[in-house]
Give the backbone structure.
Amino acid sequence: MKTWRKTGVVLAAAFMLLFAAACGNSGGSGSGDSAPASTNTGGETQGSGQQSGDTQTEQENSVNKKITLGFSQVGAESGWRTANTKSIQDSAKEAGFELKFSDAQQKQENQIKAIRSFIQQKVDVIAFSPVVESGWDTVLKEAKDAGIPVILTDRAVDSKDTSLYETFIGSDFVEEGRRAGQWLVDQYKDATEDVNIVELQGTTGSAPAIDRQAGFAEVIASNPKLKVIASQTGDFTRAKGKEVMQAFLKAHKKIDVLYAHNDDMGLGAIQAIEAAGLKPGEDIIIITVDGVKDGFIAASEGKINFIVECNPLLGPQLMQAVQDVVDGKEVPKRIVTEEGVFTSEDAKRELPNRQY
Ligand code: AHR
């Protein structure tokens, strides 16, 4: 009897082991109860530690899944913007991402609509270049609630809650304004008379308009002879730049300097200055921001005296950030673009190498 009982216990144990092994095989190696966890359908490809076979396979699929990026662009208002759009489209293609691109035509409501549509389409990441700084919290919260990370490029938002976006990639616009101001301060350090400056601002409420004005004002304040006698928006476009400059020329007898927040407005203003029988770059000193090819041509002809560069080629940095966010890697909250400054002489030298 004893031997029977022993044999029975051994057989029962062996049977249970075999049964357990058979069950385990159907789900792969590792823990047998991995099935409920294998429902990772989102864009999150990251994960740590050992996984069951099912989860692992799903993760591999997820890693190989094409990343979908929804991008809402400001518009097509300037040469800078055209170069920026091309950089984003080319880089997305190179990275193998599916890009859903939307042009907001300089209207915030269009960007909000586009972001909501990206949320509905369940893209993996949303990126956008905000037309203006304010009024984004609601839609950014909607993206956050939907679990879709948001990346800001080129322009910032003024949201207090910085958890609403992953990172902001772009230029330091205040610094650009300071560089413009510093060049002017250096040029006019021995001025004995007032230097009358007119300013063509970018789109009202946009980060570059606010910051470029602030940085410039901060630096020129060191010389009381430097006076901004008029400042008005030209909406970052050539046509508006020309129109506003015409009005400035009518309203003010003596204009010594034009500070334009971008090349395009400066180029429009040059047309107005020439039409008024004046020589741009001589009768009126001109400072612009951006450094697009047309700006460089005007600078190399001596019509623009100083250009502060603003780099539009943000595509590669954006795609890297998208990949890092999807992979669950830490990304710095702020990624600042490197840029330089160019006098007319520098522009002449650099023109043949200018890509955009
Ligand atoms: O946000 C960047 C600015 O937007 C560029 O300086 C200007 O040209 C563009 O339209």
